[in-house]
Design brief:
Elements lengths: L1 E7 L4 E11 L2 E12 L4 H7 L4 H20 L4 E6 L1 H5 L3 H12 L4 E2 L2 H12 L7 E7 L4 E7 L2 E8 L3 H5 L5 H14 L7 E6 L1 H10 L7 E3 H12 L3 H7 L4 H4 L2 H15 L3 E3 L5 H13 L11
Parallel strand pairs: 1-4, 4-5, 6-9, 9-11
Antiparallel strand pairs: 1-2, 2-3, 6-7, 7-8, 10-11
Helix pairs in contact: 2-4, 5-13, 8-9, 8-12, 9-12
């Protein structure tokens, strides 16, 4: 079987096509295609409340390209979802309808809670019995989830993300809401908190830190060192010396400071960076639908 995940975010739009490979009692995913296009829908939406004509037309062209790839790879099943920017765009539903009518490609505009649930499908397999605060920072929103003994205790979505911060739409009251939420929901009985982070920016910070990839863990102190280094560079230096894409070079610091502030308030000294995200949650959901009873096999060591 082949599955496709389309993740329409506020900063970039991703599509991944994956083949399910079965061998004896083992099942694994093989990535066949991955495309990331930096359309940055949030740039229009967070400023004007809607997707502007230029991005509107580009979006349609991109969806046509994605639909073509889905057909060329003879995908068995796909799921497309749109998050913060499309949720808030006045013309978001209209654009989704146009894509369906024009290309027969269905896009689901999902809530922050649905987004978190999708990501949690894969995150929970990286947890043990300790207390964790899961931080997922996107272009337009941040999802926070608290886990204890492998079970999710509480979750909340906040209108704070990398593109919003870049455009100075991160209101002080949102920061206060996040801090209060963390303090209200972390109990003393949980003991020492450990963070777990998802999103392109924390993965890039991890990569830039030079920490060994085996454990996929990085300390708050090391993150702050990377941020300080980035702050001392121009955008051009980040792109040339660190080989960052333009749409990563400008948002990486604003996004990383969300992770570090959450960690500071939660008193988490380290963060696990498993290199999974919404597209992986989509793939897992598609797998669950088509391979009932076999989903747990994916995460056997």
């Amino acid at each position: 079987m082949r599955f496709a995940a389309v993740d329409i975010g506020s900063n970039a739009i991703r599509m991944q096509i994956t083949k399910v490979i079965e061998f004896e009692d083992k099942i694994t995913f093989k990535k066949l295609e991955y495309v990331r296009f930096p359309l940055r829908l949030g740039q229009d939406v967070f400023k004007n409340g809607e997707i502007g004509p230029k991005k509107y037309e580009k979006f349609l062209k991109l969806m046509q390209a994605y639909k073509n790839l889905i057909e060329l790879y003879e995908v068995t099943n796909y799921y497309g979802c749109a998050t913060s920017a499309m949720r808030e765009a006045k013309n978001g539903k209209e654009l989704v309808k146009k894509v369906k009518d024009k290309f027969n490609l269905k896009i689901n505009i999902i809530s922050g809670r649905e987004e978190a649930l999708m990501i949690n499908k894969v995150i929970r397999h990286y947890l043990d019995d300790r207390a964790y605060i899961h931080i997922d920072v996107g272009g337009g929103s941040t999802e926070l989830n608290i886990y204890f003994k492998g079970e999710k205790v509480v979750s909340q979505s906040f209108k704070l993300g990398s593109v919003r911060r870049l455009q100075h739409y991160d209101k002080p009251e949102i920061w206060d809401d996040i801090r209060h939420w963390i303090k209200d929901n972390i109990k003393k009985s949980y003991g020492k908190m450990l963070a777990i982070g998802t999103g392109g920016n924390i993965n890039k910070i991890f990569e830039l830190s030079g920490v060994g990839k085996k454990e996929r863990k990085i300390s708050l102190a090391t993150i702050n060192k990377v941020i300080d280094k980035l702050k001392g560079m121009t955008l051009e230096e980040r792109m040339f010396q660190l080989q960052l894409n333009p749409d990563r070079a400008d948002v990486i610091v604003p996004a990383s400071e969300i992770y570090t502030e959450v960690m500071r308030v939660a008193k988490a000294k380290e963060i696990v960076v498993p290199d999974v995200g919404l597209k992986d949650g989509i793939m897992y959901s598609l797998f669950e639908q088509n391979y009932k009873g076999k989903a747990s096999v994916l995460f056997k060591n």
